[in-house]
Amino acid sequence: MAGNSLPDEIISEILSPALQVPDHKFADIGEESPFAEYAESPSAYLLVCKAWLRVATPLLYNVVVIRSKAQAKALAQALLKNKDLGQFIKRLRVEGGYGAPMRTILQSSPNISDLSISLNIFSSDSTSGLCAGLPLVNPTRLIFQICRKTPANQMVTKLVTTLRNLAPNWDRLSVLKIPSFLYQDELLESLNEMRTIHTLVVPSLFAAAWFFRIFKDSPLRCVQVTEGVSGDLEGFLDNFKGLEAMIRFTKEERAGSNTASSGDLTVAQIGAPSNPEFIPMEAARTEVKEFIWKRILYFALSVPELEEEPESKIPPQLPILLVSKYFNRLALPYYYAHIILTKYGYSSNLVSVVERNPWLGSHIRTIVGELDESYVVESDYSSDDDSEAAQRVRARRDLAAVILSQTTGLEALLSQDVYSPGDTPDRSDGGISWEALEIALETCGSTLQKLATRICAASSPMAPIIFSRFTALKSLVWECKTIFDLDEIPSAALPCLTDLTLAKFHSSFVVALTRMELPSLRTLVLCEHETEPTMDFLRSHGNKVVDLTCSYGEVGTKHIFELCPNIKILGLYLPHPNSPTLKVTTSFVSENVISSTLGKVVLHDSYLHRNPYWETLFLTLNSRCFPSLREIQGNGCQWPTNERDIAKSPWVRWAEILAKKDISLADYTGKKWRVRLKVVK
After folding, report:
1. What are phi and psi of 26, to 5 degrees?
2. Residue (of 242, 240, 239, 259) closest to 251 by Cα position
3. Minimal CA–CA distance to 666: which of 651, 644, 681?
4. How far apart are CA 556 and CA 112, in angstroms?
5. Which of 55, 127, 373, 559 could be 97's S-S partner, Cβ–Cβ 3.0 to 4.6 Å?
6. In contact, 240 and 209? CB cutoff 8 Å
7. How does pLDDT run across 634-677, given as a tens digit for each residue?
8. Which residues pair with 477 in a beta bridge?
9. Alpha-carbon span 479 to 503, nearest angstrom
10. In angstroms, rounded to a whole number, what is the distance separating the alpha carbons of residues 533 and 509?
11. What pTM does this model have?
12. How many CB atoms are located within 10 Å of the residue 141 CB?
């Protein structure tokens, strides 16, 4: 195998992208560390084989970021055992004090050129090692990390005093990056004493002016401003002679951003077209040109993204339609394919568009938002009421009927907010009229795949036969109090329905669903519970459900697993911390509750961390009763980003309890906690 191994140079090229720390992350001075991540450590690459260990070690140690006492202690021990490792360290970022090991680290790293120091240090975090080690290095770039509320304590004072005293000895220091709210003027003045700093990097123009007065005697050549500028630049700089010639505006890439740094973009870099009269595809046939331009406009108007996520807030690309009449004709169907009604009056505007251009209705695929803008329940007005308010409400509801009568290819009709188990039970919003729903069934019943909008209750009982027209419906959120006549129920209705949310409903609707076959049902959300109808529904269809979300206490945990034996994901909306029903530990830890299929539990509760019963649950949870359970997600959880908050967080404590049971705890984004390195006392 040794003869078939790759040369070290090629291995280095392969591993460099994975081990490289971008400079914008290393030099980040935001209030939240860009290194507060919970992914696999890059050091795992060193364990692949000896060749990777040999090549990757210098790459790994080139940039060192220290975020905890345990990391500092482990690094100090590694540098003492292998003195060559310290030679590789070129850039060092320290996000705390971290005690005595910091002296060993700085003493063992003679080649540090870039040093990032935090002044966000609490009184319990010793800076003695850092203060003792700083005189042993001589960086060329210094970066200060600081938040708006910098702790005022003895440890911070000691560090600032040390920096102020040794700064004149840093004769190589040439680049200084400073946050806007670094108010240590004496420290900055001491850094200026050597007259070596030629570049200042600051967030804003006002910070540039503030710090320029301190470093005006240094041989400054450049003052980089990483944020945009607004207002009268020349008028502002009139008071700072010499600063205008040094200012450079650079759009700095932020940590976690997918946007690359644009640098200093000038008009000369853009360039002029070689032939201003050039017309693309001038000699091509008309149908070929239209086909190509349609594909271009399809992507330019973000149609693929909106097809995948109709509710994504992609800004409308109206200027594309204004390029020419030719573009307007080709792009109009794509522009109206996915409609988001975000503001009052958009429904009436849409009515005007489809009435002037009836052919556009067949191109509309999704409508997101409220077609009825009144938010008034129909029962608030009697049918004999001819007042102006009543007429206005009826007119607004007619907008939905007009629009839906034209949308022959509609695939999704969605509200921007949907009733959930966490909502208050007495919400009484408006919605589209029942007449508008019947019109939609006539025009797009065979194409509609997603329906999640509020519907006003019909004035008289309706026949469930209408659901047989939903031949393509896959996802249904039902928020309507209409009463159904149960004499004739179509058992074969809703053949494609996979996701069902029962938000607000009359018990007769659940009875009708219970008597249907619903062969494709897999996901169920129960927001309100009529006990007997709900239980009957679960007895009939519970064996098909693999993903269930409900309010805890409405359907007992034991009943859930009995009625839904194949459940894989269980979501629970929990009551308020002061609720007497919050003591739920007995249901989960009981030996009588067993599920061999449950793999994930989602807890929808922003107050979970305040409830002492949950720690008891996590401690006593019998993993043998749930052999497939691998993840619990807390939607009220947000992982802490610094060592002090980590030590206080109940979420971290619970994550480590569950980790011993081979169960991961995830935050609201689905990010799982990784057990951190700890100091052994």
Report:
1. -60, -40
2. 259
3. 651
4. 61
5. 127
6. yes
7. 887 888 887 888 888 888 888 888 888 888 888 888 888 887 76
8. 452, 501
9. 5
10. 9
11. 0.74
12. 20
